[in-house]
Amino acid sequence: MDMAPPIIPDPQLSTTNRSKNNLSNPLPLSASQEAEVRKVYYARVRARCADEIKEFADCARGRTFSVAWTCRAQHRAMNSCMIQFATKAEEDAAREEWFAGILERRQKKEEELAAVEKRRVEVIEMTRKQEEKERIEMEKKLAAQSKEKQEKKSSGSWWR
Fold first, then answer.
1. What is the pLDDT of residue 10?
2. Residues of the domain holding 74
3. Which of 11, 13, 43, 59 lies at a CB distance of 3.0 to 4.6 Å from 71, suitable for a disulfide?
4. 25 exposure class (CB count in 10 Å sphere: 0-12, 13-18, 19+)
5. pTM of the complete model
6. Which pLDDT tens digit goes with each residue over 13-36?
7. Pseudo-torsion of CA 54, 57, 62, 63, nearest 10°?
8. 52 found inside a domain
C-alpha cells in the first residue's frame, strides 16, 4: 500500500558558504578569499554612505564620551545608511567585483614576480662583476708580491 506524500517537505541542506550558491562562480572560496570579498563589500557600503560617515566623524572629532548624546542624530543617520546598503545584493555585487578582479590581480602578481626576477638577475650580474674585479686585483697583488720577493732574492745586499 502506497503512503501519501508527506505534508512537510524534506529539508534542503543549506550551506553556510555563500559562494556555493553563486551560480556564475560555483567554486567555494578559501577563508582569505572570503576576507578579501568582505573587504570589497565593506568598501562598497562605506563608499555609498561616505557623506553620513563624514558628518558623524566631523561631529565626533575632538569629543570623548559626549559623542553618545551630542552626535546621536549623525550616528543614527550613518547606521541607517549602512543598514540600508548592507544587503545580500550588495554582497553579491562585491563578490562579482572580486571575481572580475582575479585576472587583474593575477597579472599584477606576475608583473611583480617578473620585476623581482629581473632585479635578481641584475644583482647576480653585479656580484659576478665585483668578484671578477676582486679576483683580478688579488692576482695583481700576488704578482707584485712575488716580483718583490724575486727582486729581494736576486739583488745583492750592500753589506756583502
1. 55
2. 32-86
3. 59
4. middle
5. 0.53
6. 544 444 444 545 667 888 888 899
7. 140
8. yes
Domain count, the chain: 1
Distances (CA, A) of 78 to 72, 90, 109: 10, 17, 37
Is 140 part of any domain?
no
117 membership: H or E segment, kind and range: helix 102-154
Average confidence (pLDDT) over 68-75: 92
Q: What's residue 109's pLDDT?
A: 93
Q: Tell me the percentage of the chain whose pLDDT exceeds 70.
A: 80
Q: Is the residue at 45 inside a domain? A: yes
Cα gap 94→88, rounded to integer Å? 10
In the block, residue with C-alpha cell 543549506 = 14
User: How many C-beta atoms surround the C-beta of residue 40 within 10 A?
Assistant: 17
CB 22 within 8 A of CB 37: no
Report if residue 54 sits inside a domain. yes
Give the three-class secondary structure for 30. coil
User: How far apart are alpha carbons 121 and 69 in whole angstroms?
Assistant: 62
Chain centroid, CA 138 distance in Å: 47
User: Average pLDDT over the chain, rounded to whole?
Assistant: 84
Residue 103, Cα to own-chain centre: how many angstroms? 15
For residue 14, give the DSSP letter. P
